[in-house]
Amino acid sequence: MNDHLRGPQLPPGRGQLSEAAAAYLRGAGRLPRTVTADPYGDDLQLALYLCYELHYRGFAGVEPRYEWDPELLRLRGAMEDRFLTALRADTPGHDSLDDALGALLVEPAEGTGVTHFLCGEGELWHLREYAAQRSLYHLKEADPHAWVLPRLWGRAKAAMAAVEYDEFGGGRAERVHARLFADLMADLGLDTGYGHYLDAGCAEMLAVVNLMSLFGLHRELRAALVGHFADVEITSSPGSRRLAEAMRRTGAGPAAEFFYDEHVEADAVHEQVVRHEVIGGLLEEEPESAGDITFGIDATEFLEGRLARRLLTEWRAGRSSLRAPLAPEMAHTS
Q1: In which band, very low, low, confident or very high, does the pLDDT at 186 lie, cut at 50, 70 and 90?
Q2: Largest CB tally within 10 Å, which of 37, 111, 189, 229?
Q3: DSSP notation for 46-58
Q4: Contact present, 309 and 114 (Cβ < 8 Å)
Q5: pLDDT at residue 1 above 50?
Q6: Handedness of CA 75, 77, 81, 84 (dihedral sign)
Q7: CB distance 208 to 307 below 8 Å
């Protein structure tokens, strides 16, 4: 049984927390007793990512037993408390679930986000960086949301399972969305290894991915995960249309185009199912969950906004958004 040899390599730490967590997973050192790091910063977000990844594929050389190690769970809980407390304090909140959903359904006439930038003026090096950053989620696409299935029932559970079935390829391995994203990465000349770009990913990207695991691994946050999923599905189709156009315009390749073309169609359907059946079914059973669903939507928008500002600030200054450069043949040439 060599499953613990198959995951990605542990990355270097980015501060006291993440260095201690990585050392502990290698069987050396002690974990800190208190957590005072920036809740959105590189150190805490990487340490939290390392803890969460033990519930997915783990890391090469790290024994599977660490998934439920009491000391790691203690540290993870302290980091989660700091992250979640900051999110609840900092996230601009809508007054109602209807307001939050309504805001997602409105496309601004003059969009200024990342997908608008990539569609209108992005170069191939921007698309490569975007794919490298997003690979931290897309190579495990739909996995974090699967945690919610045993925590739902009735209409919500059935509808969520139906959408997840599509995300996992409808029973066809070559159509699993994570596989399609790996094909996109190959078109862009990127390494398709799971977790390969973890060391390069910025703190803002880690926070986006960690939010899904935070919501998914806590039953009390299941409604927030439904809100997160609704945000993803509602905003995916128009954003994917712009990204598909960016891939075509830059000649990224057929697999790169196909990934986003697939999401334009699939997520337009998923959006309806999630709004009417997953959310509708959950509210039918638990009307008091509306506030948590709203928080899931708003927290997702808050963290995606932070990531967008990071990417656009760096790109408009002609700089890389990555912490570590891509391989020489991937480096931007602007």
Answers
A1: very high
A2: 229
A3: HHHHHHHHTTTT-
A4: no
A5: no
A6: positive
A7: yes
